[in-house]
Amino acid sequence: MRLDFTDMNILYQLNDDDCFFPPADRANDEGLLAFGGDLSPQRLIVAYANGIFPWYNEDEPFLWWSLDPRLIIRPGEMKVSKSLKHILKAGKFDVRIDANFREVMLHCAETPRKGQDGTWIQDEMVDAYCELHKLGIAHSFESYQDGKLVGGLYGIGIGKVFFGESMFHTVTDASKIAFYHLHQFLQANNFKLIDCQQETEHLKSLGAHTIPRKEFLEELKVLTAEPTKTGNWGTGKTEEMYLNIQQPEKLQFRAYNMDEDIALSDD
Global pTM? Predict the structure, then answer.
């Protein structure tokens, strides 16, 4: 018999013998859903396609989240300020796509952030997302000045959704320029949604806004079923592929009541 976990602070333990997840809407009030598993390409693809992403600190197990509400921006909605238009017209930055993915990740990991000590982008995450990049599923947009990488972002493209992960800049507006070119690329290639995950003033200033997780998940179900543009988006050597991301309807996981620190059955 399945227990009623309503109003419980539940954390699920992922199975090691498959790459599936509990439904994202079972995440607790903070958005934490599960722990364990690995960062294999298959698991990461299934996670993102189902509205889930990894986020953990050093010396913690892999933690998997699904936030409610969810910050998004739709291609065509980006707010371009007068100052940004001026920078674009001046051509201060050279923007490249998928030219230096690992360096973008490393810069994102090393860039200090207000209110944060250290980084959630651990070494194993860099390796995992670089593997996705080799498979043509993770991508980077990079801003250069005088040949030096000074800003950029990276994320994952599945179907008609781009899941943004992190961005950095060492020169003012370099990350905004990278985001602008991402937005233009996605609009030109008929993408329908950019997942920005967590609410930040920086992203809101660019036009991002929140929607309920339920609405986000319903859109994902449709949009991630579309063919995925794999390959190097910078060189144009790409192909359309359908990814196998369907989760089985009945899933069993070990569950823990975090308030009482006890294991529960979820059969």
Answer: 0.93
